Structure formats: structure tokens, C-alpha cells
TrEMBL record:
This is DUF3526 domain-containing protein. The lineage of its organism: Bacteria, Pseudomonadati, Pseudomonadota, Alphaproteobacteria, Hyphomicrobiales. It holds the Pfam family DUF3526. InterPro entries: DUF3526. It comes from the Bacteria. It comes from Bradyrhizobium barranii subsp. apii.
Length: 141
């Protein structure tokens, strides 16, 4: 068990920088979508629905970050016991790290959803106004 733990720890140390880079790139991609999303009504609706469902990239990164913090506390709890070949007792169970999800502030989610819906409605109103103005001039064909 000790050899497996040490090998896993080395793998985690090598993979961790790659995962952090992935998360940073994901957030950069999301910022680009936030800036250019108004060009596509489909992106606006998709982003709003993802935020409502709780499956948007910001929430994913928040979940992943909190999971990594929990994983590290779990590892810190067991590492000395594994290295010293100590068995876990019933009393040790109370000291186990516990997972606590911290939800993103509702105001952030409401802002992301509301701004996308508002922008979508502005685009629809703009296209509708152009279509009505053109149709008032007579037949298009």
C-alpha cells in the first residue's frame, strides 16, 4: 500500500501543473465567449441555459478547485499514517476531512443569465425592427 501511495503521489505532482494549465485555458476561453458571445444568439441562449442548469465552465472550475482542496486535505490526513504503517481506528473516523460544497454566489449566476437574456432580447428586437422596416417598404422579392 505504501509503494502505491508514493507512486500515486508522484503522478499527482506531475499531472497537477497540466490540470492547472487546462483550467486557466478554460477560463480564458470562457472570457472570449463572454466578449464575443453577442455575435451569436445561439451562444447567448446556450450560455444562459448552462448557467441556469449549473453546468457552465465557471461552476465546473469552482467544483474542480474545491475537489482538489478536499483531495489534498484527504491526502495530508492519510500520508503520515501510510508512511508510518499505522492502521486507521474507529476514533480516527471523526477526524477525517469532510467535503463541503461552497456554491457560487447567486448574484453572479443571476447576472450572467440576466445579461445574456437581455442581450438576446435586444438582438431579437433589433432584427425585428429591421425586418418590419423592410417589409413596410414593400415586398422583398
Amino acid at each position: 500500500m505504501r509503494a502505491f501511495f508514493l507512486a500515486k503521489q508522484r503522478v499527482d505532482e506531475q499531472v497537477e501543473p497540466l490540470l492547472k494549465r487546462f483550467d486557466q485555458q478554460l477560463l480564458q476561453q470562457q472570457k472570449l465567449v463572454d466578449v464575443l458571445g453577442f455575435l451569436s444568439p445561439a451562444i447567448l441562449v446556450n450560455e444562459a441555459l448552462n448557467a441556469i442548469a449549473g453546468t457552465d465552465s465557471r461552476r465546473f472550475v469552482a467544483f474542480k478547485t474545491q475537489t482538489e482542496v478536499f483531495h489534498n486535505s484527504w491526502r495530508e490526513h492519510f500520508a503520515p499514517r501510510i508512511k508510518d504503517n499505522l492502521a486507521t481506528t474507529a476514533d480516527d473516523l471523526e477526524a477525517l476531512p469532510r467535503w463541503h460544497w461552497i456554491e457560487l454566489p447567486a448574484s453572479d449566476v443571476n447576472w450572467r443569465v440576466g445579461s445574456r437574456i437581455l442581450l438576446f432580447l435586444i438582438l431579437v428586437a433589433g432584427f425585428g425592427t429591421v425586418a418590419l422596416a423592410r417589409s413596410a417598404r414593400g415586398p422583398v422579392i
